[in-house]
Every structure is written in C-alpha cells, then in structure tokens.
Amino acid sequence: MDGVRGDGAAAIAPLATWKDDFSRAFQYYLDKSTPLPTQRWLGTLAVATIYVLRVYYLQGFYIVSYGLGIYILNLLIGFLSPKVDPELEVLDGASLPTKESDEFKPFIRRLPEFKFWYAITKAFCVAFLMTFFSVFDVPVFWPILLCYWVVLFVLTMKRQIMHMIKYKYVPFSIGKQRYTGKKSAASGLPRD
C-alpha cells in the first residue's frame, strides 16, 4: 500500500514542479511587462484581432462574443470608476475637494490599469479557446445581440459620464505632470 502511495506521489511531484516553474516564469514576464503599457495593449489588440478574425471566418460563436462584450463593459466601468464612491463619501461626511483650500485627493481607480489589461487579455484568450468547442456555438440572430449591446453600452456610459460630471472627476491623465517653476511676467524666465 505504501508503494502505491509512493508511486502516486512520485507521479504528482514532477507535475507540481512543472506547475511551480510555469507559474514563476509567467509571473516573471508579467512583472517585466508592467512598465510597458503600450506594448501590452498592442499585444492585447493582436489577440483581439485574432479572435475577431476567427469569429468572422467561422460565422458563429456570437453568444460568446456577446458575453465577452458584456464582461469588457463591466471591466470598463470598474476602470472608469473611483475606488471610493463619492456618493458614499457624502454620507460619511468626507467629500471631494470643491475649493482651492480643500485637501487634494488624487483619482484612484477601482480597477487599476494593469488589472484591467490583464483581465481583458485573459477574457479574449478564454473566448478564443471557447471557439474550438461547438457546444458554445449557440445559434442566435447576431444583429439583435449587437443592438442590445450597443444600447446597454450607451446607457451605461451615459450614467458613468453623468457621475463624472456630478462629482467633477476625470479618470484619465495624459502624460506625467511636470513642474516648470514660476515664470516672471516680464522675461518669461523662471525666478530663483
């Protein structure tokens, strides 16, 4: 009986070692890709293009695409939303700064950009793998799904934009803000 256990454990050990090695290598490449957002998003665009071409050539798997679209919309809402909802802050007594003298509170996303990218990339990969199984090719009239998704997207984004306007936050910052110093009105040169 011990010999059987020993053989089973011996068979599992290489698999566990391989899993640990793969996990460690995968995490290494994820960590290396963190400071390269443009390259990461270009890679995701390539994966998305491959998925779209596969669905187009197969003329099917529209329900998978619809589910993928809903999931991406959900991720987008998390990406555009603040970590702490201002509606709930008002109830707690804390609020966003409204005057120059108020404390500065930076915009912190509910879903950070890296996690947003990673979730979208995983979603496209899973959807691509689902296209190899005919059980997911449910026959549907795709224009109805597309119209429903567009309406859902417009209504959701309208609500999100109204929330942004009401609480005066912008979830995007283009580039790094740099301090240029105070400029003299006469010379245009920085003062000492």
TrEMBL record:
- A single BP term in Gene Ontology: protein retention in ER lumen
| Cellular compartments annotated | Membrane
Record membrane topology? Multi-pass membrane protein
Gene Ontology terms, cellular component aspect? endoplasmic reticulum; Golgi membrane
Q: Where are the transmembrane segments?
A: 63-81, 116-134, 140-157
Query: Is this entry keyworded Kinase?
Result: no
Tell me yes or no: is Membrane among this UniProt entry's keywords.
yes
Q: What is its main location?
A: membrane
Its keywords, alphabetically, are:
Membrane, Transmembrane, Transmembrane helix
Q: Name one Pfam family in it.
A: Rer1
* PANTHER family reported in the protein's UniProt record: PROTEIN RER1
* Similarity comment text for this entry: Belongs to the RER1 family.
Free-text function comment from the UniProt entry:
Involved in the retrieval of endoplasmic reticulum membrane proteins from the early Golgi compartment.
What protein name is recorded for this chain? Protein RER1
Species: Dillenia turbinata
